Amino acid sequence: MKFTENIETQYAEFRLKNYGPPDLTIVKGEGDYVWDDEDNQYLDFGTGIATASLGHCHPALVAAISKQAETLIHASNLYRMKPQGDLCEALVKLSGPGGLFFCNSGAEASETLIKLSRLYGIQKSGTENSASKVIVLDNGFHGRTFGGMSATPQAKIQKGFYPLLPSFPVGKLNDIESFASQVDEATAAILIEPIQGEGGIHVASVEFLRELRVLCDEKEILFMIDEVQTGVGRTGNFFAHEVAGIKADAIGMAKGLGGGFPIGAVWVAKKFEELFQPGSHGCTFGGNPMACVSALTVLETIEQENLLQRVRDLSEPWIQSLNELKDTHDSLVEVRGRGFLIGLDFKQDPSKIQAELQKRGLLTVRAGGNVVRLLPPLTVSESNLKRCVELIDDVLSQMEPAASTK
Q1: Are residues 277 and 335 in the same domain?
Q2: Chain segment 29-74, per-residue pLDDT in tens
Q3: Which residue, 107, 102, 48, is CA-closest to 291?
Q4: Are 77 and 282 in contact (CB under 8 A)?
Q5: 154, 225 contact by CB (below 8 A)
Q6: Phi, psi of 184 (to 5 degrees)
Q7: Which one, of 240, 154, 142, 238, lies nearest residue 191 by Cα?
Q8: What is the domain count for the chain?
Q9: Can you give the pTM of this predicted structure?
Q10: β-pair partners for 332
């Protein structure tokens, strides 16, 4: 098959316009770096939007995927597959007694959580529709499917797609009363991110997470946690909510779980796993052998290389250095987040700052408001964390008056 040589023409003529036009063509990745089609090297602190948890082309991941591709690529959930069985067991050991459902993405994981809440509501009330409310967080994000958008109280996400699914009242971050006041007999669940990613890197406090757990226990509703971006070691714990010493009733996962290979998963606590019965949910590609060996390799590498402790150790001085930039740069308002999930909140739209960082070889990701996300791989070198701070410092210093110094 003959293709158009100019990739910009291909994207302009043949791709839908739901994304903005890219200004970079990535052709290769290795470790902390990617290269474009002109052989320019970039330090990648976007990691495919928090997916390349082991960096690019980690040798163990490449070997595992290559070996599996020679053996079995897909068979569907009509049959047993050992990689899927192994991954179920591994995630249960990390999450607690319960069961796993596999899909392809974070949005699909969110849909599974919403369906779980509906099944629980039916069990709780005895009839459909009478207990279908899921209380979500203001500024949260749970994907762009209809269920995910309905649970995402952001106008920029929902605009153009009304009417959405009903029954998603909104509470405020770190305000337990805003949740408690909305719980009634029609409430089935609470769904939150422990750190809001796309919404701007806003962190749920330990106290708030504990209060939500107590509230769900008292009112007999599900506590569902979206760990799509925060999970699999990104914050220095396997799950971000672990810092509160609590257990969820269901957890959504994706992004870094496959190290860049598409996979989503939902863990459901043993008490509620029987809510799903044959025919109640499914996914053709979910849990295929390629995805499962990718995830197993990520989990094994996290354990073998002690990456959780590494993230905790390296992130503390890195975040301190980022905070010190506020002392010399008036444009930088706040540094938020934990581990390797960090947001830089600027006074003004940071698009020009991002563009200049890219010119100098640092890739970042936007978040809500004026926030720039920094999402290095769990394997990032200490020297590249320092280089990241140096590049940001240099760019802010040279962008007067848009990023004026004190």
Answers
A1: no
A2: 999 999 999 999 999 999 999 999 999 999 999 999 999 999 999 9
A3: 102
A4: yes
A5: no
A6: -145, -170
A7: 142
A8: 2
A9: 0.96
A10: 346
